[in-house]
Amino acid sequence: MWKDEYCIGVEIVDKQHQSLFEKTAELHSAIELGVEENKQEIIDSIIFLKSYALNHFSDEEEYQKSIEYSGFEEHKAQHKAFIKNLLQHEKEMKQANFAEEPVREFAKTLKVWLLFHVANSDQRIVGKAPVAMEV
Prior knowledge:
The protein has 135 residues and is mostly helical. It contains four helices and no strands. It has helices spanning 11-32, 39-66, 72-95, 100-125. α3 runs antiparallel to α4.
């Protein structure tokens, strides 16, 4: 999933993006190997991704403030909307005891959002044109 062209040239942000892509790929692999058989690994991945995303958003927003990024408020609103969506998915997965359908839906939503956000919105922070996306 990760491509070097997703880099924005800010080391901490780029490393965090790479980690998010790696963990998202691991989550997808665990799901493909079987949700029931890998339930604890999937739950652990979801917990990690939630925590890591929150920390990453904070770091990314601090960087945006430091460079007085003109799109800060819009970008922060995207993060806020994603967190709200993530918490809703988490609630649904817990209610369904991490059954296959809600887990797959979460993983799909996460992958699409991550690709779009990093390959498009985050590129604007440093004035790079959005890169082509593959889903």
